[in-house]
Write a structure and sequence with these properties.
Radius of gyration: 41 Å
Strand content: under 5%
Number of strands: 0
Oligomer: single chain
Mean pLDDT: 76
Distance between the termini: 111 Å
Structural class: mainly alpha
Length: 213
């Protein structure tokens, strides 16, 4: 059935109205009518249905279904296993010696530098790297202390003691012990305690009643 036959089946007033609105709406209307009437027939079931060429085809269409890739972080993926802090620290312990050598090299360059601007930049790098090494040693020392504490608790459980689970305040106590040991080894414990007492006295002084005028 051609489009002329379909258009003849439409009333004259309706055709005039559609032509007045626009040829695009008219073509869509005739195409829809012909599809509903079953005009697109196939001579063979293996052949595709013949579609009208008057209907525009979209420029963008999805030809192949593509699965959406969801990004994932292996640190929070249970399939990637659990992080072993001790094994990780032992595997990359060689980086500490590299940083120590780099720090020594930077300190030598600071002594040799004559330009003030370059000397200031090198000194800043030395301070940053020295602080990083210090924090790494502190973290490693704390981790070793916690590991030793867990080992002692496991042995105590084997000997019949009830299991003990370390809380946040217990971990804080271990951190304070390590801090006092470091201060004692460096000889700064007395200065630290003096500053601590002065700070506490200033806090208490704020709550004392003021003198009347």
């Amino acid at each position: 059935m051609s489009s002329s036959v379909v258009s003849d089946s439409i009333p004259l007033q309706e055709r005039l109205r559609l032509k007045k609105v626009g040829s695009e709406i008219y073509n869509d209307y005739t195409t829809q009518s012909s599809t509903e009437n079953g005009s697109f027939q196939r001579s063979n079931k293996n052949q595709p249905i013949e579609m009208t060429s008057k209907k525009p085809v979209g420029r963008f269409r999805q030809v192949v279904d593509v699965r959406n890739k969801r990004p994932h972080d292996p640190r929070f993926d249970p399939l990637c296993g659990k992080l072993n802090q001790d094994l990780f620290a032992k595997s990359y312990s060689f980086l500490d010696s590299y940083k120590e050598n780099e720090l020594d090299t930077l300190r030598k360059e600071v002594k040799k530098a004559k330009n003030k601007e370059r000397k200031g930049d090198l000194q800043q790098k030395v301070n940053v790297l020295a602080q990083e090494i210090k924090e790494k040693k502190k973290s490693s020392r704390l981790q070793n202390a916690l590991t030793e504490r867990k080992r002692q608790e496991r042995e105590a459980v084997i000997n019949g003691k009830s299991p003990f689970y370390m809380k946040r305040k217990d971990k804080k106590k271990v951190e304070l012990q390590i801090k006092f040991q470091e201060l004692e080894e460096s000889g700064n414990l007395a200065n630290f305690m003096a500053k601590k007492r002065k700070k506490n006295s200033n806090k208490d002084h704020r709550w004392l009643p003021r003198r009347r005028t």
